[in-house]
Amino acid sequence: EVLPPQSRRSMRAASEAGQPSLAALEARNISAWFGDHQVLDRVSLTMPAGVITSLIGPSGCGKSTFLRILNRMHELVPSASLAGEVLIDGSDIYNADRKLVDARKSIGMVFQKPNPFPAMSIYDNVLAGLKLTGTRASKDERDFLVENCLTKAGLWREVNDRLRSPGGGLSGGQQQRLCIARSLAVTPAVLLMDEPCSALDPTSTRVIEETMLELVNDVTIVIVTHNMQQAQRVSTQCAFFLAAQGQPGGIVEHGDTDAMFSDPIDSRTYDYVNGVF
Ligand code: ADP
Ligand code: MG
Predict the structure, then answer these.
(1) For 157-187, how does the pLDDT look when each residue is reduced to its tens digit (9 = 90+)?
(2) What is the pTM of this model?
(3) What is the ipTM for the molecules in this complex?
(4) Whose C-alpha lies nearest to ligand 1, atom 20?
(5) Where is the signal peptide, in residue numbers (predicted)?
(6) Which atom, in ligand 1's list, is nearest to the CA of 32?
(7) How would you classify residue 92: left for phi > 0, otherwise alpha for psi between -120 and 50, otherwise beta?
């Protein structure tokens, strides 16, 4: 209630003019290569709007590659190539008519190692991606956006008295929430998180999980996690990735998280989720 209603209205208008608030993501027959080394083979997965989907599976089976493909980051690797489609609310993000910047605006990404701009202020870190949108915001609007994103990321109360201090001065868990706030500033419809808690202590992990469970009301979330308890705590749906020796990765099994953990269909899923080697 700090800001005049005028700025609230214009921020809301700005965000409504931007992206849909919730969207489903669908990968169809995704195959991926680095040079002639195939790392994914015809992976299809629907990630429904408003739920958390967990991608689980051993290292090297292509989870990060898959996640990056969902955000067109695969294209940044010169040797990389790709087949298949990624649809956000039915529209192909790789469509030639769709600008890369639009895909990036609608799909945010958070990485394993918190990567705020360390010397940049907390305030400016949140706004760092805003240039992408090409929208100009007044000082009031920027203030509102920073408060709103930090609140959604569960960080506002901890940092509102030091918004001008450097992002690098925060704890690891706070830095990760700052990265979440930064990714939210462009109002993405989907948030991709690649092992977002792997570098964090259990307390920070719990805070991030709580943040995700709040956020999923506003944004569709896909996470990669090696933490089986985490997958069970946060996700509605799970997909188990596996790459047989010398073979590209694929999804062995996917579905309702509780069912996958209590009653997996495939014995390889059973072994993985129960830590059988
Ligand atoms: P995960 O996230 O499940 O551990 P990745 O998607 O990181 O798996 O890796 C899948 C395969 O792709 C691995 O064999 C890995 O070595 C290979 N790979 C990943 N990134 C690159 C890259 N930039 N260049 C070449 N090979 C890569
Ligand atoms: Mg990975």
Answers:
(1) 999 999 999 999 999 999 999 999 999 998 8
(2) 0.90
(3) 0.98
(4) 65
(5) none
(6) 12
(7) beta
